[in-house]
Amino acid sequence: MHSDDVVWDMLGNRQFCSYKITTKTQNFCRNEYNITGLCNRSSCPLANSQYATIREEKGRCYLYMKTIERAAFPRRLWEKVLLNRNYEKALEEIDENLIYWPRFIRHKCKQRFTKITQYLIRIRKLTLKRQRKLVPLRRKIERRENRREEKALIAAQLDNAIEKELLERLKQDTYGDIYNFPIHAFDKALEQQDAESESESDAEKEDEEEEDTDRREFVEADDSDLSDFEDMDKLETSEEELEEEEEVEKKASHSRSKGKTPLKGPARSKRPYVKIEYEEETEPTTKTKAT
Q1: What gap in Å lies between CA 137 and CA 143, rounded to an integer?
Q2: What is the pLDDT of residues 237-288, one digit of tens each?
Q3: Which of 42, 70, 74, 275 has the fewest C-beta atoms under 10 angstroms from its C-beta?
Q4: By the 8 A CB rule, do 63 and 109 touch?
Q5: In the predicted structure, residue 64 carries a pLDDT above the cut 90
Q6: What's the rounded Cα separation, in Å, for the pair 116 and 122?
């Protein structure tokens, strides 16, 4: 015969229970069907033959009910009832199913259902809201990958150097006709060389065209250029002066041949003729006689 008091005496404060967690202040229960989470006589699912609780599965709430008539059938021990999504209608369904049950169980079921609906609403809001995803940095894995990349780069450079050396030897025909080198790689290298030579020739043509187009230039006048022009003017004036001196010398030589004295000093330019008159003062005769 099943007795709730005997079960509680065996599982309660006297002996061991696998669901019980003891702390300094209070004892807790880890059983999934516990309605409050506390380890006491009224909320223990094992020591109560008539028991009800609320559970959540995949976002939906279910009402679980246990009666003493199904105690002999463990597979059908709990009756499962799906509750409505509407909060008020779900409370009405709880009242209808637990109409003749103790008030404590009915009140605790409603309280548990309220808490579950609240955290489901919070979950929905958090999923719809944009959140930052925290990604942990694995330093060891990053270092390992960096080392692998460096090794792979060195190996690739070595392979490229070996390939270039073999291609050069193949061009130079150092080993004769004995080759185990793939022909497509050699053809690829030749195509690359042709493309490089074409690009170089195009670049040279473009440079030549640019030089041809840029031959005509406009340069700002400097002080040196102005001084050059001034020097040219000075040279022209000096040539004119030399010509005038030569003419004067010719005239002087012609006058010498006629018996006239040549002009002394540098050649002078012709000036207008000026006549100068001098007055001579004569002393009185008396003075002359006295002497």
Answers
A1: 11
A2: 656 666 777 777 766 665 555 544 444 555 555 666 666 776 776 665 554 4
A3: 275
A4: yes
A5: yes
A6: 10
43 burial level (CB within 10 Å; 0-12, 13-18, 19+): buried
Residue 57 bridge partners (DSSP): 60
List Cα–Cα distances, 286 to 190, 273, 289, in angstroms: 135, 41, 5
The H or E element containing residue 290 is: helix 285-290
Distance CA 32, CA 57 (A): 12
Per-residue pLDDT tens over the stretch 153-212: 888 888 788 777 877 777 776 766 655 656 666 677 667 777 777 777 777 777 776 665
The token pair that represents 120 in the structure block? 């489901």
Side chain identity, residue 273: Y
Chain mean pLDDT for the chain: 77
Question: What pLDDT, on a 0 to 100 scale, did the predictor assign at position 260?
Answer: 47
Could you tell me if 111 and 46 are in contact, meaning their C-beta atoms sit under 8 angstroms apart? Answer: no
Beta strands in the chain (DSSP E): 20-22, 27-29, 51-57, 60-66, 78-82
Do 104 and 53 form a contact (C-beta atoms < 8 A)? no
